[in-house]
Write a structure and sequence with these properties.
This protein has 178 residues and is an alpha/beta fold. It is built from four helices and seven strands; from the N terminus they run βββαβαβααββ. It has helices at 64-86, 118-121, 137-150, 152-159, and strands at residues 27-32, 35-40, 46-50, 92-103, 122-133, 164-165, 168-170. The strands form two sheets. Strands 4, 5, 6 and 7 form a four-stranded mixed β-sheet that branches. Strand 1 (27-32) and strand 2 (35-40) form a beta hairpin. Helix 1 crosses helix 3 (137-150). The protein is globular. It starts with 26 loop residues before the first strand and ends in an 8-residue tail after the last strand. The relative contact order is 0.12.
């Protein structure tokens, strides 16, 4: 039986300022080979993490890097929605994202003598967005700037030295001829 008490033994760093709010997220997982079944704590969500069959997985779900791309993208979306709401923007979204990672997998494949730092693994991260909103491009730029400052997943990447490039632009409405 797994000792879940280990999940409560977190080392805390000295903070410049104590947080006003915190959250705890837990996962219980069971894996064999390149397939992992995960149960998200305090929810009924079950997630499969696996590689394609041709790479030894079950092929029944995304792999860890694909989930990471999804996490970074969806965190930008949710942070943008929060900021747009704070700014009183009534018509914000949908946002169409295109996110791309280019990875150096040498460390994972054992082709180097040691693991690589994140900024060498994530050679290129691009996150572009087209925003449907009743605001001008300047307001979209303001929201994007705030998202870059507040998105927790982005902070995780940037604190590891990974640069995230991207452009957010207003989606041009397509007018259909009748």
């Amino acid at each position: 039986m797994l000792d879940k008490s280990v999940t409560h033994q977190c080392m805390h760093v000295v903070l410049l300022q104590e947080p006003k709010t915190t959250g705890t997220f837990e996962v219980t997982a069971t894996g064999t080979g390149f397939h992992t079944d995960c149960l998200i704590g305090n929810s009924d969500f079950q997630v499969i993490v696996t590689e394609p069959e041709e790479k030894g997985g079950s092929g029944r779900g995304p792999n860890p890097m694909q989930y990471l791309v999804v996490s970074l993208t969806s965190c930008h979306q949710e942070t943008a929605a929060l900021i747009a709401n704070e700014k009183g923007i009534e018509k914000w979204g949908p946002i169409e994202f295109h996110t791309k990672f280019e990875l150096n997998t040498d460390g994972f494949l054992g082709l180097t003598n040691s693991s690589l730092p994140a900024f060498e693994v994530f050679r290129c991260v691009v996150l572009n967005a087209e925003v449907t909103a009743d605001v001008d491009q300047d307001t979209i730029d303001q929201v994007y700037h705030a998202v870059k400052a507040r998105c927790p997943m982005r902070a995780l990447f940037e604190s590891a030295g990974v640069r995230i490039e991207g452009v957010w632009k207003k989606k041009v409405a397509v007018v259909e001829n009748e």
